[in-house]
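Before surveying the methods themselves, we first show a specimen of the format, giving the amino acid sequence and backbone structure tokens:

:::
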Amino acid sequence: MPRISAATVVEHRRQVNEKLMDAASSLLAKQTLSDIEAPLKVGEIAKEAGIARSSFYRYYNTVDDLVAALVLRDFPEWKATVATSVKEAKDPISAARAFVRANISMASDSKHAWRTAVFSYHFHQDAQREIGAIHSELHDILVVAITKLDSLAESQGYLVARTIQNIVNSAVTAVESLSLNDEQLDTYIAWHEEAVEAILVSATARATNPPQRDASTQLSPNPHEAEQ
């Protein structure tokens, strides 16, 4: 039986597991976006955690299993940060802008940046399902905020939310590779906030006064029918 320093075996295992996840997080945070496509190695994780390489397999079968556990541990913090920012907004448009700013700001922080790229890992089905659920909960924060716009029907609200989510996903994925300074990052975020606000203003206007279809865009009658 391995020597333990904690009061119980259960506590010892919890401490070692935390060391493994912290080690993986530290190593991932040092990588660039492209590096993350190359999986971490058991040996480097064990060394960073200060445990024997063989001990890794008492906790995880593969590195991917460890990374999945890390995502499930840390993503709730991301979600809580976004939720707080959106909750503090004074109206739906401000809430959507807050959603954009919080997500991009989190992605630009080296502590969190690797989380935008870990999905190149081949997670097992249970982990994929749980991680997918977390992302759905994050998206639901945006949906709830947008559907408070009285002029938007529920179906329109979901479509607008999906459009905005696609913009955020693209911005979050790209932000690390851009290596922006603070001023550039603020401008980058502001542009995305303004784009999202423009979409909401347009969606609201279209819902209130649906655009009339231009007669010139109507399909021309069948010329053979017109000759008859």
User: Anything to note?
Assistant: The chain has a mean pLDDT of 83.
